[in-house]
Structures are given as structure tokens and as C-alpha cells.
Amino acid sequence: MATLIVTVSLAFLGYLATYLNGLRLAQRQARLARVNLQLSDFYGPLFALMEANGRIYDAYAAKYARPDGRDFFHHDEPPTEEELAAWRLWATTVFLPNVRAMREVVVAKADLLIEEEVPQVLLDLCAHVSGYEITAARWERGDHTEHLSVIRFPGRELREYARDRFTGLKHEQAKLLGRSVTGRRRGAVGSGR
């Protein structure tokens, strides 16, 4: 009888261990799938668009900076018509399409946010884009009295937000995949070795 109790107990413990291990693996797989989706559909595109926009803006700013290095919107001397025309061209062909794409990611994929509520920086981004759409519509009608959005672009904050969330999720993804999260592996693609 005692042998039967031990056998049944061991069988039950084996079943329980298998069940708990299966549950843990299923939860890990579900978390990995969620992280992959967050990276591919929200934070990856947002980060890439933000980095590209920041780099092209830096190139624009260097090209059109005043001799003292400041941009013409933050200068004692008002911008010339040539500077404003260049700004309108860059804004409508490069910057506005980029920030519209960022807003589209936020609006269409908000369910993939890490946070429970939409962070202020993303709300500011959406408001900035809407404000610039009014400005661009005026330009299309020939009204060049305004050149900026009524809401400031949250550039530094958005860049930090996108970079922090993207790298945090990449680290979590690596952990879930059982990879090292410190540095690149020797000989990895893109490691320069």
C-alpha cells in the first residue's frame, strides 16, 4: 500500500512539474511574441523614423545655419524669403511626411505601447503634426505668414523615448531568446569583426 501511495505521489508530482514547466514555457513564448510585435510594429518603426528624421534635420540645419551657427527661426535677424522658401520645401517634402508616419505608428499601433496610458511625448508628437498640417495647408493657399506648428516638436524627448524603449525591448528579447544582453557577440553580423 505504501508503495502505491509513493508511486501515485511521484506520478502526481511529475505531472505537476510538467504542467508548471509547460505553463512557464507558454508564458515565455507569449511574452516573446508580444515583444517581437512591439519591436516590429511600434518601437522599431518609431525609432527608425525618429533617427532618420533627426539625422536629416541635422543635415538641413548645418546647410542652412547662419554664420554664427544658429538657425534663422531662433535668430535676432528675421529669416529671409529664400530661407523661408527652403524651409517650406524641406518641411513639406521631408519633415512633415516623416512626422506623419510617426503619428500613424502611434495612432494605429497604440495597443503595443509598453505603458498603460499614452505618454505625453507621443501626445505632443500627434499635436505637433496636426498643428503643422494647418501650416502646410496655408502654404498650399499661398499664405506664408506662419512657418511653424503651434505645438513644438518634442525632438529630444521623443528621441530619448524611442531609443530607451527600443533598446529595452531588444534586451528583453535577447533574454527571452537566451542570448547575452551585454554587447555584441564576437563575429556577429554588423559587429565590424
Describe this structure in words.
The chain has helices at 2-64, 81-108, 120-140, 155-176. The longest helix is centred in the N-terminal third of the chain and has 63 residues, at 2-64. The chain has four helices and no strands. With 193 residues, it is mainly α. Helix 1 packs antiparallel against helix 2, helix 1 runs antiparallel to helix 4 (155-176) and helix 2 crosses helix 3. The model is unreliable at 184-193 (pLDDT under 50).
Largest sheet, strands/sense/barrel: none
How far apart, in Å, are the first and last alpha carbons?
A: 66 Å
Please give the number of β-strands: 0
Q: What string gives the helices and strands in order? A: HHHH
Structural class: mainly alpha
Gross geometry: elongated
Given as residue ranges, the uncertain stretches (5+ residues, pLDDT < 50) are 184-193
Mean of residue pLDDT? 88
Cα gyration radius (Å)? 26 Å
Helix content: 55-70%
Q: Per DSSP, what share of the residues sits in E-state strands of 2 or more residues?
A: under 5%
Q: How many helices in DSSP terms?
A: 4
